[in-house]
Write a structure and sequence with these properties.
Layout: E1 9-12, H1 19-35, E2 40-45, H2 51-64, E3 68-74, H3 77-86, E4 92-95, E5 104-111, E6 114-115, H4 119-129, E7 140-142, H5 146-156, E8 166-170, H6 180-186, E9 190-194, H7 216-224, E10 229-233, E11 240-244, E12 249-250, H8 252-266, E13 271-275, H9 280-288, E14 292-296, H10 300-308, E15 313-315, E16 321-323, H11 333-345, H12 351-356, E17 362-363, E18 367-370, H13 375-386, E19 393-395, E20 400-404, E21 407-413, E22 419-426, H14 429-446
Parallel strand pairs: 2-3, 2-4, 3-7, 8-9, 8-10, 13-14, 13-15
Antiparallel strand pairs: 1-5, 4-5, 5-6, 10-11, 11-12, 15-16, 17-22, 18-22, 19-20, 20-21, 21-22
Helix pairs in contact: 1-2, 1-4, 8-9
């Protein structure tokens, strides 16, 4: 089934993802949880229209496996992760379509304190196919986790005395709206809310801050209100977009430079992990701050697992930031926003000047080449085998990242949507065009009718 992805389960509601299927998958998850020695599972959902009915199916399936269920309600994904630690269950299931269109939904699964991905997701499907399911009748209880979460963040993050930022918060009508404005106010910020009412129709713009088109309302509001910065959250609150006072998007790889410097100031020699889509200036910044820089695969589960092996923090170009230092190592856009404000509050310069001082380059945002379901994986396999980039340095840990003296290019298959993801960075516009031309030729050599967005 195509809904079983690399690091979650996701599909179109009523077509590839139905209530009956969610209930059966939930029983398989509960069966695996029981085998791992824990019978309590925390559940939550985002603000999608299909959430209530699919969550009911999720709860039924978990109970049918014999697991007790703790329902924490409609909350951002990070609070589901937090609840597994705070309530000491280690097991949790988040019902969310993340940044996918409104007709999608899915499951992010944590068992034994680890987010499932790869072979573990496949093992769930095998358990389901073989009807290898435990049977019982678990109990259901509801728990309010919000106050405990807020207290935990506010006990950790402290803005410098006397620094009060004016911040525009755009939740894109996603579930972060139930908490992000309140958290920022309690940190001492003046908050201007933009689309913070939860609405699964996403009537204003899609809640995906990686796409510049979805940041335009935030940019205008920051400029109109003369705010210090703008914060944009994705649909389930685990990815963060940032805009400075002039409306410039501060991409996550540049944000990560600040987070890395801050953590390394307390832990010299620590490891900072970043994904293959990030700027090469990030590696230089980490090393200049006395840290170890490690490039790794894109994907929240891959990153969390690698971080658990050792490191201070990790980050992706998609906006997932994972703090292990002072936090739990899961991706949490609300906590990340708090840490960013803390860092900025201790700088003598205004946020815009702090951002402007970060190393930068000529680069593209994430570019997508849409394909049929599954086609992008097959294309990528062939491309890895056939592409010829001469003497350039090639990294194949996730797709192909090709490093030249004056820049780099990347093509990789998305694990969430049927498309190829590309990104380019260079020292100059001329170098960027040259690298894009090299990639264009290699891609068209394999598929001449490919429609490329560059």
């Amino acid at each position: 089934m195509s809904i079983f992805r690399a690091y979650d389960i996701r599909g179109i509601v009523g077509e590839t993802l139905t209530e009956d299927l969610v209930e059966r998958i939930a029983q398989a998850i509960g069966s695996e949880a029981q085998i791992r020695g824990e019978s309590k599972v925390v559940v939550a959902r985002d603000g999608r229209l299909s959430g209530p009915s699919l969550q009911a199916a999720l709860i039924r399936g978990l109970q049918a496996s014999g697991c007790d269920v703790i329902d924490i309600g409609m909350l951002p994904t990070p609070l589901l992760y937090f609840a597994t630690y705070h309530l000491n269950t280690g097991h949790g299931v988040m019902l969310t379509g993340s940044h996918n269109p409104s007709n999608y939904n899915g499951l992010k699964i944590m068992l034994g304190g680890k987010t499932l991905f790869g072979d573990d997701i496949t093992a769930l499907k095998t358990r389901l196919d073989h009807e290898d399911l435990t049977v019982g009748q678990g109990r259901l209880e509801s728990v309010d986790i919000v106050e405990a979460y807020l207290q935990r963040v506010l006990s950790d993050v402290k803005l410098a005395p006397g620094r009060r930022f004016k911040v525009v918060v755009d939740c894109g009508n996603g579930v972060a709206g139930v908490l992000a404005p309140r958290l920022l106010r309690e940190l001492g910020c003046e908050v201007i809310e933009l689309f913070c009412e939860v609405d699964g129709h996403f009537p204003n713009h899609h809640p995906d801050p990686t796409q510049p088109k979805n940041m335009q309302d935030l940019i205008r509001s920051v400029q109109d209100n003369h705010a210090d910065l703008g914060l944009g959250f994705d649909g389930d609150g685990d990815r963060l977009g940032v805009v400075d006072a002039q409306g410039q998007i501060i991409w996550p790889d540049r944000q990560l430079m600040l987070y890395a410097r801050d953590s390394l100031s307390r832990h010299p020699g620590g490891r900072v992990i970043y994904d293959v889509k990030c700027s090469r200036h990030l590696k230089h910044t980490i090393e200049a701050a006395g840290g170890e820089a490690l490039m790794w695969k894109t994907g929240h589960s891959f990153m969390k697992t690698k971080l658990a092996e050792g490191g201070l923090l990790a980050g992706e170009m998609s906006g997932h930031i994972f703090f292990k230092e002072r936090w739990y190592g899961f991706d949490d856009a609300l906590y990340t926003a708090a840490r960013l404000l803390e860092i900025l509050s201790h700088e003598a310069q205004p946020p815009q000047a702090v951002f402007a001082a970060l190393p930068d380059a000529v680069s593209t945002p994430e570019l997508q080449v849409l394909m049929q379901e599954g086609e992008h994986f097959h294309f990528m396999q062939q491309f890895v085998q056939q592409a010829d980039f001469g003497t350039a340095q090639v990294f194949d840990i996730d797709g192909l990242r090709v490093e030249f003296e004056d820049g780099w290019g990347l093509v990789r298959p998305s694990n969430t949507t049927p498309c190829l993801v590309l990104r380019f960075e260079a020292d100059t516009q001329t170098a960027l065009r040259r690298i894009q031309d090299i990639f264009r030729q290699q891609l068209l050599n394999l598929k001449a009718d490919l429609s490329l967005p560059f």
